[in-house]
Design goal:
Layout lengths: L2 H7 L2 H10 L9 H13 L1 H9 L3 H11 L6 E2 H10 L4 H4 L4 H10 L4 E2 L8 E3 L2 H16 L11 E3 L4 H15 L2 E2 L8 H10 L25 H12 L3 E4 L2 E4 L1 H9 L5 H12 L6 H11 L4 E2 H8 L11 H15 L3 E6 L3 E6 L1 H9 L14 H4 L1
Antiparallel strand pairs: 1-3, 2-3, 4-9, 5-7, 6-7, 8-10, 9-10
Helix pairs in contact: 2-3, 6-8, 15-18
Length: about 375
């Protein structure tokens, strides 16, 4: 429902609190006058911009969760959990009540209780306000985005090469007897042969302090291959038989029929796989789609979006953006990456990327549990 509809179902007490927030001058005993005054205030550009400019970073993080979520209603418990996550500094969170954040949104007329017996304990965001929030934040964010007036001198665009390399991986398994180590990893000599057979080259993983959270085999495999491996594993195309890697019957059939994977499903899987480490990955994709329609500086995009990204163990928000998100976005064909003499690293959302981002939605709870097997996911 839109704001006008939700105001109509709200009681006069709630309307009075909202009207007070907007400093409305009207008859507080008239529900009709309260509603009209609130609608006029919210639709005034200067008033709405003032409300947006007064938002704290915690407010923006909470709003970011709400506006790209397709759920029609939220439980108080779910919103409390989300509100807690807006405090990135754990020491600050101990002295802060997340209910205050929800209450402030209700006083602004941005959250409403349902009107029926079934929904009165659930909270809703007016649909028309979601659009206003997105447009207003887009304008706010774009102020800090550096855009190019022309194409960069060189750029890289992988388009849908990843689906070709999924086929290459399945072919390699069908043609070789691949032994796994006792830890379940492909031996280095086979791994290097596989990587050399791909259309996009990757270096092996250097020994580092830690690698986890972005796939079952992320510890030992480079990011793109790790993703391809997990995609094939969780889609029941490959199987780990003790210390041997082989194709499943489904994998053999797909290879024999020459069918490539649907890039939509590959992108959907990436959202599910990475959202364990980056819970708001989907909304970040929407922001990149809105902010990088033309070539933009990657550094300026990071400056805008990193405050929305919570660090993951030893991965800082900047590291997550630059080393986890952007490279895989390029490998999936979502963005093109280039170099510019003035701005350095630059990127642009591709037409394919924009269609995928706008066309695919993954629910909050729909994430890949790295401990599960493909049969458990069926």
């Amino acid at each position: 429902m839109n704001l006008a509809d939700m105001l109509g179902y709200a009681d006069i007490y709630d309307l009075s609190r909202i009207a007070k927030n907007y400093a409305c001058e009207c008859n507080g005993n008239s529900k009709h006058e309260l509603m009209q005054s609130i609608l006029i205030a919210v639709n005034r550009r200067d008033v709405f911009e003032q409300q947006m400019n007064e938002l704290s970073m915690e407010d923006i993080r909470f709003l970011n969760f709400l506006i790209f979520n397709q759920r029609e209603a939220f439980s108080v418990e779910d919103l409390l959990a989300r509100a807690k996550q807006t405090k990135f500094n754990p020491n600050e969170a101990e002295e802060w009540n997340p209910r205050d954040l929800i209450t402030s949104f209700k006083h602004r007329g941005w959250l409403f209780n349902g009107y029926s017996q079934q929904t009165k304990y659930l909270l809703h965001v007016p649909v028309d306000l979601k659009r206003k929030f997105i447009d207003a934040l887009t304008v706010k964010f774009k102020l800090n985005i550096c855009s190019l007036s022309d194409f960069p001198s060189i750029y890289r665009d992988e388009q849908s090469l990843i689906v070709d390399d999924i086929v290459s991986f399945l072919k390699f398994i069908s043609q070789h007897d691949i032994q796994l180590s006792t830890d379940g990893y492909i031996y280095k000599r086979f791994l290097l042969q596989i990587l050399d057979s791909f259309s996009v080259h990757e270096e092996g993983v250097a020994k580092t302090a830690w690698r986890f959270g972005y796939g079952r085999k992320f510890k030992e495999y480079p990011a793109r291959f790790s993703f391809i491996y997990d995609y094939c594993y969780f889609h029941n195309l490959i199987i780990e038989k003790g210390e041997q890697l082989a194709l499943t019957d489904q994998g053999k059939t797909k290879l024999a029929e020459g069918r490539k994977e649907d890039i939509l499903q590959v992108y959907r899987f990436w959202l599910k796989l990475y959202k364990g480490a980056i819970p708001n990955l989907q909304s970040l994709m929407h922001w990149i789609d809105r902010l990088a329609k033309q070539w933009v500086s990657q550094a300026s995009l990071a400056e805008v979006l990193c405050p929305l990204i919570k660090s993951y163990y030893y991965d800082s928000s900047e590291s997550i953006f630059e080393n986890r998100m952007i490279p895989l976005m390029m490998h999936l064909g979502l963005v093109r990456i280039g170099e510019d003499g003035e701005y350095g690293r630059v990127l642009q959302v591709s037409k394919l990327g924009s269609s995928l981002i706008q066309g695919i939605y993954v629910a909050d709870e729909d994430a890949i549990d790295l401990k599960l097997t493909p049969s458990a996911l069926a």
